[in-house]
Amino acid sequence: MTQAQKTRTGEHGSRLSRRSFLKVSAAGLAASVLGAAGFELTPQQAAAALARRQAGTLRVAWGGAPVALDPLNASADTEIAFLNAVYDYLLDTDARSELVPRLATAWDISADGLTYTLTIAEGVTFHDGSELTMDDIVWTFERLRSDGPTADLYADIERVEPGEGRSVIFTLSRPNPDFLYNLTDNHAVILKANAQNIGQEFNGTGPFKLEEYIPDRATLSANPAYFAGAPGVETLEFFYFDSVESAVNALRGGQVDAVLRMDNATFLALGGEGTFITQQATTSGHDLVRLRADREPGSDERVRQAFRLATDRQAIFDRLQFGFGAIGRDSPIGPFFARYYSEETPLPGPNPEAARRLLAEAGYPDGLEMTLYVPNLSDRVALAQTLAAQWEAAGIRITIEPQEEAVYYADNGWLEVDLAITPWGHRPVAQQFLDLYLRSDAAWNESHFSDEEVDRLIEIAGTTLDEDERTQAYHEIQRILIERGPIIIPYFFAQFGVMGDYVSGVDVHPFAGRTRFHTATVS
């Protein structure tokens, strides 16, 4: 999975058999290298930390290490953060998913929605000193649309070609109102044409240059020739820990300056300590609880509705999210997408007795016994336990099967099981979720849901240039999913970042790996 083809989760990345991997040993991660994480600094350690800050070094801790650094296959926050520092995208999004310039300083769309002309910034050079050309952009997108996980995302590109002066022209085969957002996809960093050893050698145009990469850290230096201005720090260091807990302990101990991405309880605790700057960003990321809809018992709409009736979303939100994020309504079109979000269709339940009656009508008078598969991540296991307790009151008896992520996603096994929880990371537009896991022929239609009316509405929403028509289609999709869909989305999670009070100029992005550090300063 991937970011546009599905990073299942921006929080924990994707590990698909179809991906080619850059094998990086995770042994000896930064927790062991830094050693003293979580303990008070000695005077010598404190002096060293101060010296690094005075030298303009920003140290960012991550729970986990990169696996794939070829942009075609990268997806985890750690991977995208690295690429985001070394390379550039044509366009970016801000914390509210508004488009902002990056390499492209302006864009023009033809009246028929088929031709996009992007003006590219002057004075952009790669780290080897060569100038960025329009051919580099063309080559990058030919690679993205011809192979791997982004081929479907860019399937509507008929051709990419240099335009007049410093411009590049994308011609589409059909209208796509989200096309500019597709250009912000996590994989779409611009490479030098005919680049070799991609994912092992890194010649980008970005604000930082790679100086050293070892299994527990990446050290990057400021690019003084960066077209948007030299970064505010001289050195950016990414430290890769074996867990978020270790990363947070290093922050508390003063060995790092910032941690992005953590659970709600940890963020709440750090916010109460009074020595850190805390940030949270609203996201569209969510945990997808789904039944297989193409075979028993999930093929019966009454069973799907019984699961919905047995679920108390408010209780889950209060217990697990601590008020962060937003309550879900069993559709990926959540409150983050305010224009398209609807509460017109009431959610059923919670009503376990009504759920029992529906199960009996569906031929299960004694209830159901099912196995719930879930990635072995503490917050996802906690969700599974909460759901199992709620569902038991409706006669749905659950055996929880936690699996290490490498096992859960191996050989696409997560697509085959009858009942599962899959984390899905933030997307800037709702359509991406629909295309990725709800359309009948979607590559990651893990619920195996196939509904002609939903498919028709997804097609309308993904192609119409009439915003009212699009809004109505999205409202109808939400209604259908509540009435007969095989998915439950109990909440949308928030994204967190915590920094020392001497760090400024960092705005946490809903997809943590897309947080930009070139504007950071330390004092």
Count of DSSP strands: 22
Oligomer kind: single chain
**Tell me about the biggest sheet?**
7 strands, mixed
Question: How much helix, percentage-wise, in residues?
Answer: 25-40%
Number of helices: 15
Please state the CA-atom Rg, rounded to the nearest Å: 23 Å
Low-confidence stretches: 1-39
In percent, how much strand structure appears in the residues? 15-25%
Overall average pLDDT: 90
Calculate the terminal CA-CA distance, rounded to whole Å.
39 Å
Trace the largest sheet across and list its strands: 8-9-10-1-11-20-12
**Would you tell me the structural class of the helices and strands?**
alpha+beta
| Gross geometry | globular
Report a brief summary of the structure.
The chain has helices at residues 30-34, 43-54, 77-86, 134-146, 179-182, 244-253, 264-271, 301-309, 313-321, 352-361, 378-392, 405-408, 430-437, 452-463, 467-484, and strands at residues 57-63, 91-93, 99-101, 104-109, 115-120, 157-162, 167-172, 208-214, 217-222, 235-241, 258-260, 276-281, 286-291, 326-327, 368-375, 396-403, 419-424, 487-488, 491-492, 495-500, 503-504, 521-522.
